[in-house]
UniProtKB/TrEMBL annotation:
Record's keyword annotation contains Transmembrane: no
Domain HTH hxlR-type as annotated: residue spans: 12-110
GO molecular function terms listed in the Swiss-Prot or TrEMBL record: DNA binding
Protein name according to UniProt: Transcriptional regulator, HxlR family
Length: 114
């Protein structure tokens, strides 16, 4: 049996972006991978409040959505690395604009989200 979405995605670009970025740790994961953090253990250390299970699930979703790629090295102890895809690289200007906006408005954002 295949998964059937209960609530359809509206056929709007922002709905698809939301679908891809929805998840507490996806934006930080993309940011760290873009900045050279490629191993799961390194990502876990950068985002210590996230459980490894949740990080793995969100990394899997980002691979499925072709934002990042996963390379498994066939060694005695298997090694995994993540990289941004060409498609994922096109997301970086958007993410950097979001980060800049957040940093420029951090005090108000803190106040209104408490």
């Amino acid at each position: 049996m295949t998964y059937q979405r209960k609530i359809p995605i509206l056929d709007c670009g922002h709905e698809y972006v939301r679908e891809i970025l929805y998840g507490r740790w996806k934006v930080p994961l993309i940011y760290y991978i873009a900045n050279g953090v490629s191993r799961p253990g390194e990502l876990q250390r950068k985002i210590p409040h996230a459980s490894r299970r949740v990080l793995d699930a969100q990394l899997t979703q980002l691979v499925k959505h072709e934002i990042i790629s996963k390379t498994v090295f066939d060694e005695t102890v298997p090694k995994v690395e993540y990289q941004l895809t060409e498609f994922g690289l096109t997301l970086m200007p958007v993410m950097m604009a979001m980060i800049k906006w957040g940093n420029n408005n951090i005090e108000q954002l803190k106040r209104v989200t408490r």
